[in-house]
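Entry 0007
Protein: DNA polymerase III subunit delta
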Amino acid sequence: MDDIPLIISHNPDDDCIEIICKLLHLDKSLFAHAVKIRPQTSRITLDQIRELKTSLYVTRSKKQIVIFERFETATLEAQNAMLKLLEDTLGNNTYYLCTTEVYSIIDTIRSRCRVVTSPTSCIDSFKKLTSIDDLLNLKINALSLKNYQIPKRDDAVLTFRNLIEELKRYYVSGSLWSVKSARLAVQLYSLLLKNNINPQLAIDHWIISTLKFIDKDTVKS
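Output (structure tokens):
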């Protein structure tokens, strides 16, 4: 396994270990004895990081796998302590910081980690839609764009490939908005392959434009 700390960006409904195994092609048995840190009540606290540091020191002769669930809930104090822990024990242990909001993690931690984004963070929300109204109901959440963070070009390319395939189901059924959305997805995909567009801007543009396409089609109908 990679010793570089990993930030795993995923859907809120995803199981952390399952999504790690899927993204990195790892066997679930590797995580049987992993140390798991979850929010206490609603936050990951400074005391939890301190307790983790003590535990890792006691077991320092053995390499540990540490998994944080919902790391976006970590307080600033906890994140700063985590940064120090990464600096002090880098290479001795393997860290997975699972989050639904990558940019809620401080820059100094993100710069020391590799971000791995599940393509389903956008696609799974789309697959749950069964009608135009469903996507319209998601407008407020989608326009906030919090759950659609694609920091890497390769992740965005994979996301658009899957989106284009998924959209086929919708335009085959006669949804006009999906044809426009698919065309835009193909254009953005092409720009990404040429490295001529920022990955996050591509995703944001597709989401906002698709919502507009749906609005127009709804008005016409």
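Curator remark: The first helix runs from residue 16 to 24. The longest strand covers residues 94-99.
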